[in-house]
Amino acid sequence: MCRSIKTLRPPFTEDATEDDVRAAALQYVRKISGFRQPAAHNAAAFEEAVAAVAEATAVLLDRLEIRGRA
Predict the structure, then answer these.
(1) pLDDT mean by block of 10 residues, the chain; 70 residues
(2) How far apart are the C-alpha atoms of 54 and 31, rounded to whole Å?
(3) Cis omega (within 30 of 0) on the bond before 11?
(4) What would the 3-class secondary structure string for the chain be?
(5) Sorted alphabetically, which Pfam families does this protein's record hold (predicted)?
(6) Which of 4, 8, 40, 58 is such that its CA lies 20 to 30 A from the CA of 66?
(7) pTM
């Protein structure tokens, strides 16, 4: 999988920022699409995918319950 995507949940990362979440989403979309930078005719779909993955990631991180943490 995407080895450059770091784990964003505690205790690995205490405060994942929006930039961290977007960077992870961008890496994921790049990996599965095979494009580092999409052509102009694919740019909108690429950016929409990054936004959707970032949103899903933020929801997931907000909803995770980490045992043993107050």
Answers:
(1) 73 85 95 95 97 96 81
(2) 15
(3) yes
(4) CCCCCCCCCCCCCCCCCHHHHHHHHHHHHHHHHCCCCCCHHHHHHHHHHHHHHHHHHHHHHHHCCCCCCC
(5) DUF2277
(6) 4
(7) 0.84
